């Protein structure tokens, strides 16, 4: 009981960090209105994140700390939370009487989390120098989000969007991207003890630390509250699935199967992240309901500023 009343260092650090990111998001929103910045500038920032800052972050962390492969034990529970949320998200869309395209969008945005652009940098800040925590966060992002989104997630969306079969050749292109290649390269550098000049590693780490801020600036630039028009009720319901139900499933799994810390906390917090920004891209590519996906992604990103500290508090309060 005492644990439930006392906020740990992690919870205390998460609140101010998210508060600062909210200010960055607000800055992007203001710039879009005052300076006329918009989707084009947001796309430039997103490109920098995907091809430069995020790969730099992954490579630097892995080259320095290596990969703790035992962290892979969290993957089944993260996957279970994802698939349970996908099913419930689709059921919610059906309950609102939405069409197949909207059901496809609902399943994707209710399940796939922003584990890379938001989750990984946040967790690296909360668990500095902890190889187990960083490895769990990276493996969840790489396997559960990136690989599953661009394979099973895309296949699901294709079926409900355009009614087409899944194109495996197109999906496999994800393995050629710097974001994915940085993981085995960084792990290999650490494994063979290849010396990296300190200035180079420091530069890569510096670039990587800008990831979260660039993502929130981009999100602020592209925020469109009009996307919620006529979709407020289903968007709120899907956000509840993403921000409450998904981490609840992950928390139940890690507690029932006694997953050790910090792996348990990382698995739950990654499941609690808002909808993946890439989910909107998948939805658009496959002919599903893009306005609904954009509405949920926007609302979930904003609401997560309040729900993430709450989830962190619950995780701490339920520790054995």
From TrEMBL:
Keywords: Cell membrane, Membrane, Transmembrane, Transmembrane helix, Transport. InterPro entries: Mem_transp_PIN-like, Na+/solute_symporter_sf. Coiled coil: none annotated. GO terms for cellular component: plasma membrane. It is found in: Cell membrane. Its main location: membrane. Belongs to the auxin efflux carrier (TC 2.A.69) family. This is AEC family transporter. It comes from Polyangium spumosum.
């Amino acid at each position: 009981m005492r644990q439930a009343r006392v906020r740990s260092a992690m919870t205390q650090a998460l609140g101010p960090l998210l508060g600062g990111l909210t200010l960055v998001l607000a800055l992007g929103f203001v710039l879009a209105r005052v300076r006329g910045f918009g989707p084009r500038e947001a796309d430039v920032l997103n490109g920098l994140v995907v091809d430069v800052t995020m790969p730099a972050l992954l490579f630097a962390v892995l080259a320095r700390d290596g990969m703790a492969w035992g962290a892979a034990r969290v993957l089944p529970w993260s996957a279970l939370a994802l698939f349970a949320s996908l099913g419930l998200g689709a059921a919610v869309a059906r309950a609102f009487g939405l069409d197949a395209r909207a059901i496809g969008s609902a399943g994707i945005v209710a399940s796939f989390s922003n584990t890379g652009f938001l989750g990984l940098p946040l967790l690296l800040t909360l668990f500095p120098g902890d190889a187990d925590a960083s490895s769990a966060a990276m493996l969840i992002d790489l396997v559960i989000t990136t690989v599953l989104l661009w394979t099973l997630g895309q296949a699901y969306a294709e079926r409900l969007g355009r009614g087409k079969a899944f194109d495996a050749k197109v999906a496999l292109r994800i393995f050629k991207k710097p974001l994915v290649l940085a993981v085995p390269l960084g792990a290999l550098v650490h494994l063979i003890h290849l010396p990296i000049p300190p200035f180079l590693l420091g530069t890569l780490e510096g670039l990587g630390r800008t990831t979260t801020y660039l993502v929130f600036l981009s999100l602020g630039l592209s925020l469109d509250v009009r996307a919620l028009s006529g979709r407020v009720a289903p968007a709120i319901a899907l956000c509840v699935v993403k921000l409450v139900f998904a981490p609840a499933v992950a928390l139940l799994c890690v507690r029932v199967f006694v997953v050790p810390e910090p792996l348990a906390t990382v698995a739950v917090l990654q499941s609690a992240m808002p909808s993946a920004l890439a989910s909107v891209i998948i939805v658009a590519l496959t002919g599903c309901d893009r306005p609904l996906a954009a509405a949920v992604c926007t609302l979930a990103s904003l609401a997560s500023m309040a729900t993430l500290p709450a989830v962190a508090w619950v995780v701490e309060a339920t520790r054995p």
